[in-house]
Amino acid sequence: MSCCGAAPDINDVNEVSRLVSAKLAAFLKTLRDSGFAVGLAEGQDAASLMTAGFVARPGLLRSAFKHLFSARKSDWEKFDGIFDAFWLGKRVRSRSTTTGSAKSANNPSLKSLPNTRPEPRAGGDTAMDQIPSGDGADDLDRSGEGRMEGASRADQLAEIDFRKMADPEQIEEAHAAAARLAQTMRTRLTRRDLARRRGYRLDLRRTIHGNISHGGVPITLVRRQRKEKPLRLVMLLDASGSMSMYTGVFLRFIHGVLDEFREAEAFLFHTRLAHVSDAMKEKDAARALDRLSIMAQGAGGGTKIGESLQTFNRWHAARVIHSRTVVMIVSDGYETGDAALLGREMAALGRRCRRIVWLNPMMAWEGYAPEAAGIKAALPHVDLYAPANTLKSLTALEPYLAKL
Amino acid sequence: MKTREEIAQALAAAGYIADGELATAISLMQLLRRPLLLEGEAGVGKTEVAKALAGVHATELIRLQCYEGLDQSAALYEWNYQRQLLSIQAHRGDNPDAVEDQIFSEKYLLERPLLAAIRRDKPPVLLIDEIDRADDEFEAFLLELLSDFQVSIPELGTIKAVTIPHVVLTSNGTRELSDALRRRCLYHYVDYPDADREARIIMVRIDGAGASLSLQIARMVESVRKEELRKVPGVAETLDWAAALVGLDVRDLHDAPETVHETLMCLLKTHEDRSRMSREVTERLLGKVA
After folding, report:
1. Spatial distance between the Cα atoms of A48 and A220, rounded to a whole number of angstroms
2. Which of A28, A56, A276, A282 has a CB 3.0–4.6 Å from the CB of A288, allowing a cystine?
3. Is B165 exposed, middle or buried (0-12, 13-18, 19+ CB in 10 A)?
4. In the predicted model, what is the mean pLDDT of chain A?
5. What's the DSSP call for residue B68?
């Protein structure tokens, strides 16, 4: 027996458990920072595992925690590294993420995504701030009231093209057309479901309930209605330099679609892929675009459609695509990466979803032919290849999409 | 409660060769009373885990296969309508209320897997297979059932669980599951077994497959999986192939390259994959198998 307090007494035990729980809490925070969805219940279970003797066997503890804290394959794969780094002090290789990071928010040059195009002012002399855009092709001006109102000086464009779309009224019209498109798709799908619903199976429970007084003879039939399952739209928008003329209006279009269509997801890509649905679901269109412009701006370099699709197929497709999904790709198909990879990824995507619609704004340009290797590799896997550079062409998609 | 080692042994006895982590998962299921969510490619043996688990606990396996449109009546309970109708006919003229009380009683209730699972005296293994195929609504309903272990039947009232079943959910990742469901479960990712483990699986399952043949088969399958295929062969395919080879009296893969090539259809299930695996490719892969 010790008399000087060196031996472990009850206070020491408390001290130890206090340290352990502090360490555990720090570990939970590390996990949460790494994207794990760890709730209170998991924390409690982890604590109970630690007191149940798992602490003495780190390998076992790691395995136990791995099962407890992981919720998906990506968690499962990175867990061991995080555990070892935290508890055993081992180094882990850092990974880059594919979504927009907070860091880019601080970069003022990223605000240059052209999205709406007020009438270009003569000579551009009224510009207040001039921020160089990512691709160096456009100058932007920010007028007094418009926050993200950018104007392109490169106005050598055809009349009815989106590139020319200037005043807020026209833009509003584009937005409305997008919303209408989404609405049409939804209504027609509902109607189709209604027709199919006819003759759907009887709800025997309710039928019997309702016919007891007739001696069980089923005079009043109660039918069970099938819940309609909406079509899902997944949009992949090319936000690279070569598409910059169109990105703005398509962002608005996508915003309209997401607004109307509950089942929709949106992604932007240039040299990498960004999942933007949450940012796009912002009610306020201007704010949504603001958030997006931060995520959308690429390195200003090329378009890696193949790689972006690979990322999509690998990390997002399983979650966002079901059997009634239409994937809509808006891109000019100028691939600076591997065209063969693009072809393979398109094939993989095609097997997963119901239809692939490829909208190419350049298609309506005079003399344009899909000669680029990227678009050539992609086209065999596309169900509908259409121009989308004007409101008219966008509206012309309605009947096709409604048939999906 | 069984230790990890005991669980691994019991799983092996039940015909499942598990890695150490799976044994941990199963011991945690008991300790923390959480369902186990198994995710992984089709054919890696997720469903087998549940079957083996039933073996470990020496209990019944109740399976609910999920599909799009699966609703509560198919999963939980249903009324025996034919008997109800007959009964109504028999009591024609009686007070309708009394008839109603009678026909919506326990006697006319048909248990479906979920109700059956919570009403067993000995906790069964409840396998909810391919939960990702069911609709979101069903997933939400399941979550409620799995946390409260009770169901309410409008005509009968609340039915509480007699025992809490061991719940195993499997998912192929065709749809993203809700975070709520994921959080509720222990998670285990089932990967294709490595060659050694697959060889042991073959030995346990296929009579007449010796150690060296089993290892050859497992290594061959391992290299086939590395080829770019539309449908990567699962463990079940490996077992089919092994059974075919044993049936054709192959003792060593190198002695019968022709048979190996011809029987590869046990592994390759699409025309595209089959045509990709030419005789030359088979020989190249066979060359790698020591």
Report:
1. 57
2. A282
3. buried
4. 69
5. T
Instruction: State how far the alpha carbon of B144 is from the alpha carbons of A122, A183, B31, B109, B123, in Å.
Output: 64, 34, 21, 22, 19
Mean pLDDT of A314-323: 82
Strand A325-330 to A232-238 pairing: parallel
Say what angle helices B279-288 and B211-226 make with each other, to 10 degrees: 120
Disruptive mutation site among A28, A49, A50, A67 for chain B (greatest number of B CBs within 10 Å): A67
Partner-chain contact B88 A212, CB within 8 Å: yes
Distances (CA, A) of B89 to A157, A217, B84, B109: 80, 8, 9, 18
Interface check for A45 against chain B (CB to CB < 8 A): the answer is: yes
Token output for A301: 């370099």
Confirm or reject contact between A204 and chain B (CB < 8 A).
yes
* B39 SS3 class: strand
Residue B177: closest CA among B233, B134, B118: B134
Q: What SS3 state is found at B154?
A: coil
Question: Å from A58 to nearest chain B CA?
Answer: 13
CA B133 to chain centre: 14
Poorest-pLDDT segment among A140-149, A341-350, B173-182: A140-149
How much is the pTM? 0.62
Test the B interface: residue of A63, A80, A228 with most B CBs within 10 Å:
A63
Query: Considering only CB atoms, which chain B residues are within 8 Å of A75?
Result: 187
Q: What is the pLDDT of residues B236-252, one digit of tens each?
A: 999 999 999 999 999 99
Kindly determine whether residue A73 and residue B85, on different chains, have CB atoms separated by under 8 Å.
no
